[in-house]
């Protein structure tokens, strides 16, 4: 049974079981990256969770829909593999925020959207779906027995007619296993301080990382997400508005220990796949992140069976891939979607976006 409460203060804001499961559908794309980042850098995980909690709530209320708030994956990935230190990651986040706020303010993202063409944007969505699937396989491979068990649980819940609640069941099992392994964490309020994990370092590596991230962010987090807002929620949200809100997020969160954050089509598809339809999902997830900030001990999160998150990523990847191909009607567009997607998987989403845009322009001229 679902109990919901509609707020008079925000149009369409709802709190229900489906909003809760949808909120957790976004978290499965976030938690593995944050755990890995905390294990490999000096980042303060409690401060990171505060940033995610605050801006989930802010943008859920502002847009009135379950907009995703995710880590900037290219930058976070570079930090995880050691190409960026945390101070360089912080610097890159500030640079990216300034650029996104500026180009959004002057309407440059919207102009780029009209030039690029829809098949290229669909290809970016497909690329993200493939990357999520690749991440899911990697997580599952570390503990195949756990992953198989997770898929069995999801299958049983779906067969029983409760597909949306499968995320709650799997995450509940994982949390129980983590507590059994690491014990119950003690509550601790994160300290309010400027750059608590290190002062930004504006190095060459930080600049290079910013450039690599911006191609992915503009393609996936701005343009593709704007398109998906219309596909899934019938909402007209401009890519320039998303660019500005991402810029504000980075510039406001990084100085207080947060990491570079963006919107994303993967997280938005994840929320939709698990039932979120209003900004209430963001409020619920934001409160959940703020609660995690109080108990974000490294041992607790490290003990969570990541293979179970891999199981849920498969569901998210399927939803995003289906959205990418649903409106494609001709062979040329299909080839461009597949080509951009595969290039994004094998090389880089930013490179795939640039190559796809060039190919689209050339094909338009041929016609």
Distance between the termini: 55 Å
In one word, what is the shape?
A: globular
Proportion of beta-strand residues: under 5%
Give the domain tally.
1
Contiguous helical run count: 17
Q: Which structural category fits the helices and strands?
A: mainly alpha
Uncertain ranges = 1-10
The residue fraction in helices comes out at: over 70%
Strand line-up in the sheet with most strands: 1-2
Secondary-structure element series: EEHHHEHHHHHHHHEHHHHHH
Characterize the main sheet.
2 strands, antiparallel
- Average pLDDT value? 85
Question: How large, in whole angstroms, is the Cα Rg?
Answer: 19 Å
* Total strand segments: 4
InterPro entries: MOT1/MOT2
Protein name: Molybdate transporter of MFS superfamily protein
Transmembrane segments: 20-41, 48-69, 89-108, 120-139, 145-162, 167-187, 289-321, 333-363
Keywords: Membrane, Transmembrane, Transmembrane helix
Describe the overall structure.
Helices cover 72% and strands 2% of the residues. The protein has helices at residues 17-27, 31-40, 45-63, 73-80, 86-105, 108-116, 118-141, 144-159, 166-182, 204-233, 239-253, 265-273, 280-295, 298-302, 306-325, 331-346, 349-366; strands at residues 5-6, 14-15, 70-71, 261-262. Strand 1 and strand 2 form a beta hairpin. The longest helix has 30 residues, at 204-233. One of its GO terms (molecular function) is molybdate ion transmembrane transporter activity. It comes from Natronobacterium haloterrestre (Halobiforma haloterrestris). InterPro entries: MOT1/MOT2.
């Amino acid at each position: 049974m679902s109990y919901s409460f509609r707020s008079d203060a925000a149009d369409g804001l709802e709190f229900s079981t489906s909003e809760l499961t949808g909120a957790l559908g976004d978290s499965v794309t976030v938690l593995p990256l944050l755990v890995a980042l905390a294990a490999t850098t000096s980042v303060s995980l409690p401060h990171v969770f505060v940033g995610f909690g605050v801006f989930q709530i802010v943008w859920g209320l502002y847009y009135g829909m379950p907009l995703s708030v995710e880590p900037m994956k290219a930058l976070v990935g570079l930090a995880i593999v050691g190409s960026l230190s945390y101070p360089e990651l912080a610097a890159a986040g500030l640079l990216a925020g300034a650029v996104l706020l500026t180009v959004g303010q002057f309407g440059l993202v919207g102009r780029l959207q009209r030039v690029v063409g829809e098949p290229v944007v669909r290809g970016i969505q497909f690329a993200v779906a493939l990357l999520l699937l690749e991440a899911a396989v990697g997580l599952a491979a570390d503990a195949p027995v756990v992953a198989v068990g997770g898929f069995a649980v999801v299958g049983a819940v779906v067969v029983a007619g409760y597909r949306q609640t499968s995320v709650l069941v799997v995450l509940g099992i994982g949390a129980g296993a983590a507590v059994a392994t690491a014990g119950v964490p003690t509550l601790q309020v994160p300290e309010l301080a400027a750059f608590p994990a290190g002062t930004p370092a504006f190095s060459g590596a930080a600049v290079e990382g910013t450039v690599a991230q911006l191609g992915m962010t503009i393609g996936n987090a701005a343009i593709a997400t704007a398109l998906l807002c219309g596909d899934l929620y019938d909402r007209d949200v401009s890519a320039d508005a998303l660019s500005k809100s991402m810029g504000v997020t980075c510039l406001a969160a990084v100085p207080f220990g947060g990491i570079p954050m963006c919107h994303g089509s993967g997280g938005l598809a994840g929320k939709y796949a698990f039932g979120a339809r209003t900004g209430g999902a963001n409020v619920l997830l934001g409160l959940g992140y703020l609660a995690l900030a109080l108990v974000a001990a490294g041992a607790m999160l490290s003990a969570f069976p990541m293979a179970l998150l891999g199981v849920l990523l498969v569901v998210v990847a399927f939803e995003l891939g289906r959205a990418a191909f649903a409106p494609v009607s001709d062979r040329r567009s299909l080839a461009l979607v597949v080509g951009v997607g595969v290039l994004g998987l094998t090389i880089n989403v930013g490179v795939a976006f640039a190559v796809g845009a060039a190919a689209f322009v050339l094909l338009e001229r041929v016609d």
